[in-house]
Amino acid sequence: MQKTTKHQTSVSFLIYFLAIILMSGCVSGQLGKNNSGEYKNGMVVSAHPKASEVGIEILKKGGNAVDAAVAVQFALAVVYPNAGNIGGGGFMVYRSSKGEINALDFREKGPSSASRDMYLDSTGNPIVAKSLYGQLASGVPGSVDGMVEAHKKYGKLSWKEVIQPAIDLAQNGFQITKQQASELNNMHRNFMKFNPEGTAFINLERPWKENDLLVQNELATTLKLIQEKGRAGFYEGAVADSIVLEMQKGKGLITKEDLKNYHSVWRKPITGTYRGYKIITMPPTSSGGVALVQLLQSVEPYPLKKWGHNSDSTVQLIVEAERRVYADRATHLGDPDFYAVPVNELLNPDYNKNRMSTFNWSAATPSSSVLAGNVNGKEHEETTHFSIVDREGNAVSITTTLNGSYGSFVVVKGAGFLMNNEMDDFSVKPGAPNMYGLVGGEANSIAPNKRMLSSMTPSIVEKDNKLFMVVGTPGGSTIITSVFQTIINVIDFEMPMQSAVAAKKFHHQWLPDEVYAEKDALDSLTTEKLKAKGYKIVLRGGIGRVDAILKTKWGTYQGGADPRGDDKAIGY
Ligand code: GLY
């Protein structure tokens, strides 16, 4: 038997020790994880576990937050077809580890032959279904161009690498969640109606069940073309031909020229401050960033922390702030390339302080007495948001949408992706009440090549010039409320990220003059006190589906994945 020397023993011990360290690094999610579920190297939070996995793998491969964001956007188009998309649009807010900030507007545009009254009947009344379902409801998609632009400017890995995971998911299929099975079954009739030639979302043999494999071969082919040719793989050639052919089936307006001419736009983010934190958020075409900063300015003078989370004073103050801000939103916000949005005036702290001066603690301010503007009140809530931070500390906040769940329900034949119904986000009939008795805004009237107003509010918060939070949510007009309440839940009520996201929310949007509250958002005493002051409280289902990341004072990342959906935070 060989004798072991003292030197050999210490070398063996060293190898053993190194192996333990390396092994612990190989256990998924453990490298960089501290005891409280926080991570130091990076994090992805999205609406679907598979998309979060795709993002984290890109980060682990050395990709940066933008590489991961592009991969997640395409992966969501496969695994979360309700809102993940290549046939829709969205917004990105970016902050580099060095503090550079930027915003990308890849919102859809009205086709070049769109016209102000295109959804009105001969008597001038809106034909609601026309802007909601079928080929005519679609704007020119922006997501693919947006991802190409984002990657060109900030990406590190190759375009091929960041698209590949989505192709694999479409080609090999993925197991649908219980929630997805039930949604696909509920939407069966709509899919049949708008896709008589069939689509991957229709299961003719039996209802969908949890863990069924959803394979999307046509979508895989489209993604391969985008992988090979970049934006030309979507806006030109076979995919563009398929979109135009699909449009012709239902009087849709999108032409080859519209597709070729679509370009996303880099815009200067909206910035503001709140209790010493810096808010970086989306400018118009979103109304969200302006409204978010207005809300924060409106409540900043008041001691929310002392009053407590969802206490009667806190709720009353926020409702009154929202009433005023949503009236402004309805009147003044639209596509800045077509309409002079008075951003500086709306973001003047004195202006918002003044707006709050008519608020009276003893009784609700009737919305009819708040300066009446115009509002488009029929926004859909099925959008999706994801937040990403990489090892260097670069952060991406993207909200992306088809508008309604599964958009227009039209799946482009031969190309396998859903088209948006974003045209419904325009004011279909400016100056007259819509189906809810609300009035549509001139700023957001339909015009050729114009972008429809959005509420999407992807945002990033800084503290002491360093990254603090990445946050956003779906939810139509409730998006602004949910992002706002998540931010104050952390800053004022000192909640950890997950609690701030999960906390029950409430919402007021000027018109209708009602406070919408999730079940258990307000306790019975608070509800009684508010009712006595004239507030109408209406209980409703989930508000928002926030996916957010918080950087702790120890430099670790905490995820907040909304329990209202299948959302997942993965760090490493
Ligand atoms: N379609 C929802 C939004 O853009 O706000």
Automatic annotation (TrEMBL):
Cleaved by autocatalysis into a large and a small subunit. Its EC number is 2.3.2.2, 3.4.19.13. It catalyses: an N-terminal (5-L-glutamyl)-[peptide] + an alpha-amino acid = 5-L-glutamyl amino acid + an N-terminal L-alpha-aminoacyl-[peptide]; an S-substituted glutathione + H2O = an S-substituted L-cysteinylglycine + L-glutamate; glutathione + H2O = L-cysteinylglycine + L-glutamate. It comes from the Bacteria. Gene3D superfamilies: 1.10.246.130, 3.60.20.40. Pathway: Sulfur metabolism; glutathione metabolism. Keywords: Acyltransferase, Glutathione biosynthesis, Hydrolase, Transferase, Zymogen. GO terms for molecular function: leukotriene C4 gamma-glutamyl transferase activity. PROSITE patterns: G_GLU_TRANSPEPTIDASE, PROKAR_LIPOPROTEIN. Pfam families: G_glu_transpept. Belongs to the gamma-glutamyltransferase family. This enzyme consists of two polypeptide chains, which are synthesized in precursor form from a single polypeptide. This is Glutathione hydrolase proenzyme. It comes from Pedobacter jamesrossensis. The lineage of its organism: Bacteria, Pseudomonadati, Bacteroidota, Sphingobacteriia, Sphingobacteriales.
